[in-house]
Protein backbone atom coordinates (compact mmCIF):
# COMPACT_ATOMS: atom_id res chain seq x y z
CA UNK A 1 0.00 0.00 0.00
CA UNK A 2 1.21 3.52 -0.69
CA UNK A 3 0.61 7.17 -0.60
CA UNK A 4 -1.32 9.46 -2.90
CA UNK A 5 0.38 12.17 -4.96
CA UNK A 6 0.37 15.88 -4.17
CA UNK A 7 -0.62 18.53 -6.72
CA UNK A 8 -0.43 22.30 -6.64
CA UNK A 9 -1.31 25.20 -8.92
CA UNK A 10 -1.03 28.98 -8.76
CA UNK A 11 -2.11 31.93 -10.87
CA UNK A 12 -0.36 34.99 -9.44
CA UNK A 13 0.99 37.71 -11.76
CA UNK A 14 3.71 39.68 -10.01
CA UNK A 15 4.62 36.84 -7.64
CA UNK A 16 7.52 34.36 -7.71
CA UNK A 17 5.24 31.50 -8.73
CA UNK A 18 8.01 28.90 -9.06
CA UNK A 19 9.17 29.49 -5.49
CA UNK A 20 5.62 29.55 -4.14
CA UNK A 21 4.92 26.27 -5.94
CA UNK A 22 8.10 24.83 -4.43
CA UNK A 23 6.93 25.84 -0.95
CA UNK A 24 3.46 24.46 -1.62
CA UNK A 25 4.91 21.12 -2.70
CA UNK A 26 7.02 21.01 0.46
CA UNK A 27 3.76 21.03 2.42
CA UNK A 28 2.60 18.11 0.24
CA UNK A 29 5.86 16.11 0.29
CA UNK A 30 4.24 13.57 2.64
CA UNK A 31 1.96 12.53 -0.23
CA UNK A 32 4.82 11.23 -2.38
CA UNK A 33 8.60 11.05 -2.31
CA UNK A 34 9.58 9.37 -5.59
CA UNK A 35 9.66 12.39 -7.91
CA UNK A 36 8.83 16.09 -8.09
CA UNK A 37 8.33 18.70 -10.76
CA UNK A 38 7.25 22.27 -11.48
CA UNK A 39 5.96 23.80 -14.72
CA UNK A 40 5.77 27.59 -15.15
CA UNK A 41 4.11 29.66 -17.90
CA UNK A 42 4.75 33.27 -18.90
CA UNK A 43 1.85 33.91 -21.29
CA UNK A 44 3.62 32.44 -24.31
CA UNK A 45 5.68 29.43 -23.26
CA UNK A 46 5.67 26.67 -20.64
CA UNK A 47 8.93 25.86 -18.86
CA UNK A 48 9.27 22.54 -17.02
CA UNK A 49 11.75 20.99 -14.62
CA UNK A 50 11.29 17.63 -12.90
CA UNK A 51 13.33 14.77 -11.53
CA UNK A 52 13.41 11.71 -9.31
CA UNK A 53 13.69 12.11 -5.56
CA UNK A 54 12.68 14.65 -2.94
CA UNK A 55 12.03 18.29 -3.74
CA UNK A 56 15.29 19.52 -2.28
CA UNK A 57 17.18 17.01 -4.45
CA UNK A 58 15.33 17.97 -7.63
CA UNK A 59 15.43 21.77 -7.30
CA UNK A 60 18.28 24.20 -6.71
CA UNK A 61 18.21 27.96 -6.32
CA UNK A 62 19.44 28.36 -9.89
CA UNK A 63 16.68 26.14 -11.27
CA UNK A 64 13.98 28.01 -9.35
CA UNK A 65 15.29 31.36 -10.60
CA UNK A 66 15.21 30.09 -14.19
CA UNK A 67 11.51 29.22 -13.99
CA UNK A 68 10.05 32.65 -14.71
CA UNK A 69 6.36 33.31 -15.31
CA UNK A 70 3.10 34.27 -13.66
CA UNK A 71 1.34 30.91 -13.33
CA UNK A 72 2.57 27.44 -12.40
CA UNK A 73 1.69 23.90 -11.36
CA UNK A 74 3.64 21.33 -9.38
CA UNK A 75 3.60 17.67 -8.45
CA UNK A 76 5.13 15.37 -5.88
CA UNK A 77 4.79 11.73 -6.85
CA UNK A 78 4.45 8.21 -5.67
CA UNK A 79 3.67 5.93 -8.58
CA UNK A 80 0.14 4.57 -8.89
CA UNK A 81 0.02 3.76 -12.60
CA UNK A 82 3.45 3.35 -14.16
CA UNK A 83 6.76 2.58 -12.46
CA UNK A 84 9.15 5.10 -10.93
CA UNK A 85 11.14 6.30 -13.95
CA UNK A 86 11.90 9.84 -15.06
CA UNK A 87 9.47 9.66 -18.00
CA UNK A 88 6.66 9.09 -15.50
CA UNK A 89 7.62 12.06 -13.32
CA UNK A 90 5.18 14.97 -13.41
CA UNK A 91 4.00 17.47 -14.47
CA UNK A 92 3.75 15.95 -17.93
CA UNK A 93 3.96 18.22 -20.98
CA UNK A 94 1.69 17.79 -24.01
CA UNK A 95 2.05 19.52 -27.39
CA UNK A 96 -0.44 18.52 -30.07
CA UNK A 97 -1.67 20.53 -33.06
CA UNK A 98 -1.01 23.85 -31.41
CA UNK A 99 -2.39 22.85 -28.00
CA UNK A 100 0.29 23.11 -25.31
CA UNK A 101 -0.35 22.16 -21.72
CA UNK A 102 1.28 20.71 -18.62
CA UNK A 103 -0.67 18.46 -16.27
CA UNK A 104 -0.28 17.16 -12.70
CA UNK A 105 -2.46 14.26 -11.60
CA UNK A 106 -3.43 12.63 -8.32
CA UNK A 107 -5.42 9.41 -8.67
CA UNK A 108 -5.78 6.44 -10.99
CA UNK A 109 -7.63 6.11 -14.30
CA UNK A 110 -9.23 2.68 -14.30
CA UNK A 111 -10.01 2.51 -18.03
CA UNK A 112 -6.45 3.38 -19.02
CA UNK A 113 -6.02 0.34 -21.28
CA UNK A 114 -9.00 1.17 -23.47
CA UNK A 115 -8.00 4.84 -23.55
CA UNK A 116 -4.46 3.88 -24.59
CA UNK A 117 -5.92 1.87 -27.49
CA UNK A 118 -8.05 4.88 -28.48
CA UNK A 119 -5.03 7.21 -28.35
CA UNK A 120 -3.08 4.75 -30.50
CA UNK A 121 -5.93 4.66 -33.04
CA UNK A 122 -5.53 8.44 -33.35
CA UNK A 123 -1.94 7.90 -34.47
CA UNK A 124 -0.38 9.02 -31.19
CA UNK A 125 2.11 7.18 -29.00
CA UNK A 126 2.72 7.36 -25.27
CA UNK A 127 6.17 8.50 -24.15
CA UNK A 128 5.53 7.23 -20.62
CA UNK A 129 3.69 4.37 -18.95
CA UNK A 130 1.63 6.75 -16.82
CA UNK A 131 -2.12 7.21 -17.10
CA UNK A 132 -1.50 10.93 -16.52
CA UNK A 133 -0.07 11.30 -20.03
CA UNK A 134 -3.21 9.60 -21.32
CA UNK A 135 -5.32 12.29 -19.68
CA UNK A 136 -3.23 15.05 -21.24
CA UNK A 137 -3.38 13.53 -24.73
CA UNK A 138 -7.10 12.85 -24.41
CA UNK A 139 -7.67 16.54 -23.61
CA UNK A 140 -5.42 17.74 -26.44
CA UNK A 141 -7.15 15.72 -29.18
CA UNK A 142 -10.69 16.83 -28.32
CA UNK A 143 -12.60 19.16 -30.62
CA UNK A 144 -13.33 22.49 -28.99
CA UNK A 145 -12.61 26.17 -29.21
CA UNK A 146 -11.38 26.48 -25.60
CA UNK A 147 -9.29 24.36 -23.26
CA UNK A 148 -12.23 24.27 -20.83
CA UNK A 149 -14.43 22.71 -23.51
CA UNK A 150 -11.78 20.12 -24.35
CA UNK A 151 -11.32 19.16 -20.70
CA UNK A 152 -15.08 18.78 -20.28
CA UNK A 153 -15.29 16.45 -23.28
CA UNK A 154 -12.33 14.39 -22.03
CA UNK A 155 -13.97 14.01 -18.61
CA UNK A 156 -16.85 12.14 -20.24
CA UNK A 157 -14.42 9.40 -21.30
CA UNK A 158 -12.39 9.14 -18.08
CA UNK A 159 -13.15 6.58 -15.38
CA UNK A 160 -11.60 6.37 -11.95
CA UNK A 161 -10.04 9.02 -9.74
CA UNK A 162 -8.44 12.23 -10.95
CA UNK A 163 -7.71 15.49 -9.26
CA UNK A 164 -5.75 17.62 -11.74
CA UNK A 165 -3.95 20.90 -12.02
CA UNK A 166 -3.47 21.91 -15.67
CA UNK A 167 -1.26 24.71 -16.96
CA UNK A 168 -1.64 26.46 -20.30
CA UNK A 169 0.49 29.44 -21.33
CA UNK A 170 -2.06 31.80 -19.72
CA UNK A 171 -4.24 29.81 -17.31
CA UNK A 172 -4.19 27.42 -14.38
CA UNK A 173 -7.07 24.95 -14.21
CA UNK A 174 -8.19 22.63 -11.40
CA UNK A 175 -10.28 19.54 -12.17
CA UNK A 176 -11.87 16.95 -9.89
CA UNK A 177 -13.50 13.70 -10.99
CA UNK A 178 -17.30 13.26 -10.70
CA UNK A 179 -16.94 11.36 -7.41
CA UNK A 180 -14.41 13.74 -5.87
CA UNK A 181 -12.34 10.77 -4.72
CA UNK A 182 -9.06 12.65 -4.25
CA UNK A 183 -9.06 16.02 -2.45
CA UNK A 184 -8.47 19.39 -4.10
CA UNK A 185 -9.08 22.86 -2.70
CA UNK A 186 -8.99 26.52 -3.70
CA UNK A 187 -7.19 29.39 -1.97
CA UNK A 188 -6.99 33.14 -2.49
CA UNK A 189 -3.63 34.94 -2.36
CA UNK A 190 -3.36 38.71 -1.90
CA UNK A 191 -6.90 39.41 -3.02
CA UNK A 192 -6.99 38.46 -6.70
CA UNK A 193 -4.50 35.64 -7.10
CA UNK A 194 -5.50 31.98 -6.90
CA UNK A 195 -4.00 28.77 -5.55
CA UNK A 196 -5.06 25.12 -5.91
CA UNK A 197 -3.71 22.31 -3.73
CA UNK A 198 -4.36 18.72 -2.72
CA UNK A 199 -4.56 19.81 0.92
CA UNK A 200 -5.25 23.09 2.69
CA UNK A 201 -1.95 22.82 4.59
CA UNK A 202 -0.21 23.87 1.36
CA UNK A 203 -2.36 27.02 1.19
CA UNK A 204 -1.31 27.97 4.70
CA UNK A 205 2.39 27.68 3.87
CA UNK A 206 2.14 30.14 0.98
CA UNK A 207 -0.15 32.40 3.08
CA UNK A 208 -3.20 31.86 0.89
CA UNK A 209 -6.68 32.00 2.40
CA UNK A 210 -8.78 28.85 2.07
CA UNK A 211 -11.86 29.50 -0.07
CA UNK A 212 -13.49 26.11 -0.65
CA UNK A 213 -12.99 22.61 -2.00
CA UNK A 214 -13.21 22.00 -5.72
CA UNK A 215 -16.52 20.21 -6.18
CA UNK A 216 -16.89 16.72 -7.60
CA UNK A 217 -17.04 16.95 -11.41
CA UNK A 218 -15.99 20.62 -11.43
CA UNK A 219 -13.53 22.55 -13.60
CA UNK A 220 -12.19 25.75 -12.00
CA UNK A 221 -10.18 28.16 -14.19
CA UNK A 222 -7.88 30.91 -12.89
CA UNK A 223 -6.87 33.49 -15.50
CA UNK A 224 -6.78 37.24 -16.14
CA UNK A 225 -10.58 37.06 -16.16
CA UNK A 226 -10.59 35.93 -12.53
CA UNK A 227 -11.96 32.61 -11.30
CA UNK A 228 -14.56 30.74 -13.33
CA UNK A 229 -16.32 27.43 -12.66
CA UNK A 230 -17.80 24.82 -15.01
CA UNK A 231 -19.67 21.58 -14.34
CA UNK A 232 -19.44 19.62 -17.62
CA UNK A 233 -20.32 16.20 -16.14
CA UNK A 234 -22.88 15.20 -13.51
CA UNK A 235 -21.77 13.90 -10.13
CA UNK A 236 -23.50 10.57 -9.32
CA UNK A 237 -22.55 11.02 -5.68
CA UNK A 238 -19.62 12.21 -3.63
CA UNK A 239 -17.14 9.45 -2.76
CA UNK A 240 -14.19 11.04 -0.96
CA UNK A 241 -11.46 8.56 -0.04
CA UNK A 242 -11.94 7.77 3.64
CA UNK A 243 -8.25 6.98 3.99
CA UNK A 244 -7.45 10.65 3.52
CA UNK A 245 -8.95 11.17 6.98
CA UNK A 246 -7.33 8.08 8.51
CA UNK A 247 -3.80 8.43 7.20
CA UNK A 248 -2.95 10.43 4.07
CA UNK A 249 -3.75 14.03 4.94
CA UNK A 250 -1.57 16.13 7.19
CA UNK A 251 -3.19 16.75 10.60
CA UNK A 252 -3.36 20.52 10.03
CA UNK A 253 -5.36 20.11 6.81
CA UNK A 254 -9.11 20.51 6.33
CA UNK A 255 -10.88 18.19 3.88
CA UNK A 256 -14.59 18.64 3.19
CA UNK A 257 -14.68 21.09 6.08
CA UNK A 258 -13.27 18.58 8.58
CA UNK A 259 -10.08 19.28 10.53
CA UNK A 260 -7.96 16.13 10.24
CA UNK A 261 -6.33 16.35 13.69
CA UNK A 262 -9.66 16.75 15.48
CA UNK A 263 -11.20 13.89 13.49
CA UNK A 264 -8.32 11.60 14.45
CA UNK A 265 -8.64 12.51 18.11
CA UNK A 266 -12.33 11.64 17.90
CA UNK A 267 -11.32 8.31 16.34
CA UNK A 268 -9.25 7.70 19.48
CA UNK A 269 -12.25 8.53 21.68
CA UNK A 270 -14.39 6.04 19.75
CA UNK A 271 -11.63 3.45 19.83
CA UNK A 272 -11.58 3.49 23.63
CA UNK A 273 -15.36 3.15 23.75
CA UNK A 274 -15.16 0.09 21.49
CA UNK A 275 -11.91 -1.37 22.81
CA UNK A 276 -11.29 -0.42 26.46
CA UNK A 277 -8.40 -2.04 28.31
CA UNK A 278 -6.56 -1.64 31.63
CA UNK A 279 -3.11 -0.23 30.95
CA UNK A 280 -0.43 2.09 32.31
CA UNK A 281 0.34 4.28 29.31
CA UNK A 282 -0.97 5.08 25.83
CA UNK A 283 1.53 5.65 23.05
CA UNK A 284 1.00 6.41 19.39
CA UNK A 285 2.95 5.30 16.36
CA UNK A 286 4.27 8.61 15.00
CA UNK A 287 3.08 10.55 13.24
CA UNK A 288 -0.33 9.42 12.01
CA UNK A 289 -1.16 7.38 15.11
CA UNK A 290 -0.41 10.24 17.51
CA UNK A 291 -3.71 12.13 17.38
CA UNK A 292 -5.79 8.98 17.87
CA UNK A 293 -3.52 7.97 20.77
CA UNK A 294 -4.11 11.35 22.42
CA UNK A 295 -7.84 10.82 21.91
CA UNK A 296 -7.68 7.33 23.43
CA UNK A 297 -5.84 8.77 26.44
CA UNK A 298 -8.40 11.57 26.84
CA UNK A 299 -11.32 9.15 26.77
CA UNK A 300 -9.75 6.48 28.99
CA UNK A 301 -7.90 8.59 31.55
CA UNK A 302 -4.78 6.49 30.90
CA UNK A 303 -1.74 8.79 30.65
CA UNK A 304 -0.37 9.53 27.19
CA UNK A 305 3.37 9.05 26.83
CA UNK A 306 6.00 9.36 24.15
CA UNK A 307 7.13 5.78 23.68
CA UNK A 308 8.53 5.83 20.16
CA UNK A 309 11.03 8.43 19.05
CA UNK A 310 10.88 9.21 15.34
CA UNK A 311 13.97 10.03 13.31
CA UNK A 312 12.78 13.13 11.44
CA UNK A 313 15.18 12.47 8.56
CA UNK A 314 13.45 9.23 7.58
CA UNK A 315 10.33 9.37 5.39
CA UNK A 316 7.17 7.33 5.76
CA UNK A 317 7.93 3.60 5.54
CA UNK A 318 4.38 3.15 4.19
CA UNK A 319 5.45 4.74 0.90
CA UNK A 320 8.78 2.99 0.50
CA UNK A 321 8.22 0.76 -2.55
CA UNK A 322 10.17 -2.36 -1.57
CA UNK A 323 9.37 -4.60 1.42
CA UNK A 324 13.05 -5.20 2.25
CA UNK A 325 13.66 -1.44 2.28
CA UNK A 326 10.58 -0.96 4.46
CA UNK A 327 11.93 -3.49 6.97
CA UNK A 328 15.23 -1.63 7.32
CA UNK A 329 13.34 1.66 7.34
CA UNK A 330 11.42 0.73 10.50
CA UNK A 331 14.63 0.28 12.49
CA UNK A 332 16.01 3.56 11.19
CA UNK A 333 12.76 5.42 11.70
CA UNK A 334 11.63 4.50 15.24
CA UNK A 335 13.49 4.15 18.51
CA UNK A 336 11.74 2.92 21.67
CA UNK A 337 12.03 5.08 24.79
CA UNK A 338 12.77 2.52 27.46
CA UNK A 339 11.85 4.84 30.34
CA UNK A 340 8.25 5.02 29.05
CA UNK A 341 7.96 1.35 28.15
CA UNK A 342 9.85 -0.89 30.58
CA UNK A 343 7.56 -2.85 32.89
CA UNK A 344 4.44 -1.10 31.57
CA UNK A 345 1.16 -2.28 30.10
CA UNK A 346 1.10 -0.41 26.81
CA UNK A 347 -1.79 0.69 24.63
CA UNK A 348 -0.19 1.09 21.19
CA UNK A 349 -2.38 3.16 18.84
CA UNK A 350 -1.86 3.27 15.09
CA UNK A 351 -3.99 4.36 12.15
CA UNK A 352 -4.04 1.07 10.21
CA UNK A 353 -2.52 -2.34 9.60
CA UNK A 354 -1.79 -3.01 5.94
CA UNK A 355 0.57 -5.95 5.50
CA UNK A 356 1.14 -6.49 9.23
CA UNK A 357 4.90 -6.67 8.96
CA UNK A 358 5.55 -3.14 10.18
CA UNK A 359 3.17 -3.47 13.14
CA UNK A 360 4.74 -6.77 14.09
CA UNK A 361 8.21 -5.26 14.12
CA UNK A 362 7.07 -2.37 16.31
CA UNK A 363 5.40 -4.76 18.77
CA UNK A 364 8.56 -6.86 19.00
CA UNK A 365 10.65 -3.70 19.44
CA UNK A 366 8.48 -2.64 22.39
CA UNK A 367 8.60 -6.06 24.03
CA UNK A 368 12.38 -6.05 23.60
CA UNK A 369 12.40 -2.67 25.37
CA UNK A 370 10.71 -4.29 28.39
CA UNK A 371 6.97 -3.80 27.81
CA UNK A 372 4.85 -6.07 30.02
CA UNK A 373 1.77 -6.10 27.74
CA UNK A 374 1.03 -4.50 24.38
CA UNK A 375 -2.59 -3.84 23.48
CA UNK A 376 -2.77 -2.69 19.86
CA UNK A 377 -5.63 -0.37 18.96
CA UNK A 378 -6.22 0.62 15.34
CA UNK A 379 -8.22 3.77 14.50
CA UNK A 380 -9.71 2.28 11.33
CA UNK A 381 -11.48 -0.95 10.36
CA UNK A 382 -9.46 -3.78 8.78
CA UNK A 383 -8.19 -2.97 5.26
CA UNK A 384 -9.42 -6.02 3.37
CA UNK A 385 -9.75 -4.87 -0.24
CA UNK A 386 -7.43 -3.18 -2.76
CA UNK A 387 -7.82 0.42 -3.84
CA UNK A 388 -7.85 1.21 -7.56
CA UNK A 389 -8.22 4.97 -7.18
CA UNK A 390 -4.74 6.18 -6.32
CA UNK A 391 -3.40 3.84 -3.63
CA UNK A 392 -1.10 1.04 -4.71
CA UNK A 393 -2.91 -1.98 -3.18
CA UNK A 394 -4.01 -3.69 -6.36
CA UNK A 395 -2.99 -7.13 -5.06
CA UNK A 396 -5.44 -8.24 -2.40
CA UNK A 397 -3.11 -10.96 -1.14
CA UNK A 398 -0.80 -8.22 0.23
CA UNK A 399 -3.50 -7.16 2.70
CA UNK A 400 -3.28 -9.19 5.89
CA UNK A 401 -6.94 -8.59 6.83
CA UNK A 402 -8.07 -10.14 3.54
CA UNK A 403 -6.82 -13.56 4.61
CA UNK A 404 -6.62 -13.58 8.42
CA UNK A 405 -9.16 -13.01 11.19
CA UNK A 406 -8.56 -10.33 13.82
CA UNK A 407 -7.36 -12.99 16.28
CA UNK A 408 -5.02 -14.43 13.66
CA UNK A 409 -3.64 -10.96 12.96
CA UNK A 410 -3.12 -10.44 16.69
CA UNK A 411 -1.13 -13.66 16.78
CA UNK A 412 0.85 -12.67 13.67
CA UNK A 413 1.91 -9.30 15.09
CA UNK A 414 2.53 -10.77 18.56
CA UNK A 415 0.30 -8.37 20.49
CA UNK A 416 -1.39 -9.08 23.83
CA UNK A 417 -4.69 -7.91 22.33
CA UNK A 418 -5.91 -6.24 19.14
CA UNK A 419 -8.96 -4.11 18.44
CA UNK A 420 -9.97 -2.22 15.31
CA UNK A 421 -12.33 0.75 15.17
CA UNK A 422 -15.66 -0.12 13.56
CA UNK A 423 -16.78 1.53 10.33
CA UNK A 424 -19.67 3.16 12.18
CA UNK A 425 -17.28 4.52 14.81
CA UNK A 426 -14.99 5.86 12.11
CA UNK A 427 -17.78 7.59 10.18
CA UNK A 428 -19.16 9.16 13.34
CA UNK A 429 -15.70 10.41 14.33
CA UNK A 430 -15.19 12.13 10.97
CA UNK A 431 -18.66 13.64 11.17
CA UNK A 432 -19.79 13.43 7.54
CA UNK A 433 -22.55 11.23 6.07
CA UNK A 434 -21.49 7.69 5.20
CA UNK A 435 -22.70 8.10 1.61
CA UNK A 436 -20.10 10.87 1.10
CA UNK A 437 -17.18 8.43 1.28
CA UNK A 438 -15.45 5.81 -0.79
CA UNK A 439 -14.96 2.97 1.72
CA UNK A 440 -13.95 0.35 -0.85
CA UNK A 441 -10.72 -0.64 0.93
CA UNK A 442 -12.79 -1.48 4.02
CA UNK A 443 -15.99 -2.85 2.49
CA UNK A 444 -15.19 -3.98 -1.06
CA UNK A 445 -17.97 -1.70 -2.38
CA UNK A 446 -16.52 0.49 -5.14
CA UNK A 447 -18.20 3.67 -6.43
CA UNK A 448 -17.86 2.37 -9.99
CA UNK A 449 -17.03 -0.91 -11.69
CA UNK A 450 -13.35 -1.89 -11.88
CA UNK A 451 -12.09 -3.59 -15.07
CA UNK A 452 -10.90 -7.16 -14.60
CA UNK A 453 -7.13 -7.62 -14.09
CA UNK A 454 -6.52 -3.89 -13.54
CA UNK A 455 -3.16 -3.09 -11.90
CA UNK A 456 -0.62 -0.26 -11.77
CA UNK A 457 1.78 -1.57 -14.43
CA UNK A 458 -0.96 -2.29 -16.95
CA UNK A 459 0.30 0.24 -19.51
CA UNK A 460 3.81 -1.24 -19.36
CA UNK A 461 2.51 -4.67 -20.34
CA UNK A 462 0.49 -3.70 -23.39
Summarize the structure.
This protein is α+β, with helices and mostly antiparallel strands and 462 residues long. The chain is built from 16 helices and 23 strands. It folds into two domains: 6-239, Glutamine Phosphoribosylpyrophosphate, subunit 1, domain 1 (4-Layer Sandwich); 260-431, Rossmann fold (3-Layer(aba) Sandwich), CATH 3.40.50.
Features:
six-stranded antiparallel beta sheet; globular; Glutamine Phosphoribosylpyrophosphate, subunit 1, domain 1; 2 domains; 462 residues; seven-stranded antiparallel beta sheet
- Give the helix/strand class: alpha+beta
- Proportion of residues in extended strands: 15-25%
Query: What is the name of the CATH superfamily of the largest domain?
Result: Aminohydrolase, N-terminal nucleophile (Ntn) domain
Total count of strands: 23
Rg, alpha carbons = 22 Å
Helix-residue proportion: 25-40%
Reading side by side through the largest sheet, how are the strands ordered? 3-2-4-1-10-9-11
User: What is the CATH fold-level name of the largest domain?
Assistant: Glutamine Phosphoribosylpyrophosphate, subunit 1, domain 1
Low-pLDDT sequence parts:
none
Distance between the termini: 24 Å
Which CATH architecture of the largest domain would you pick? 4-Layer Sandwich
Q: Report the major sheet.
A: 7 strands, antiparallel
Amino acid sequence: MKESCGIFGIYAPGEDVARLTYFGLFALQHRGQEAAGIAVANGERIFLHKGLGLLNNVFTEEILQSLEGYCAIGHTRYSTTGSNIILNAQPIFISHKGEKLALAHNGNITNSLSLAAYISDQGLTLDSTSDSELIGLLIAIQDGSTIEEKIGKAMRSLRGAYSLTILTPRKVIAVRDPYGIRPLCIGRLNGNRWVFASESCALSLVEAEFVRDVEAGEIVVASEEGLKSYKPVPSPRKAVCIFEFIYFARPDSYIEGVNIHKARRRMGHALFQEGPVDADVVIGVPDTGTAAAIGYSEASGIPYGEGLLKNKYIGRTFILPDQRIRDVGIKLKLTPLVETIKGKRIVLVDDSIVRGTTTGKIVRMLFDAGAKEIHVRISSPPISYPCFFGIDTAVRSELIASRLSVEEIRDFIGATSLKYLSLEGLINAIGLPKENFCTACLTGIYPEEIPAHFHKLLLEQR
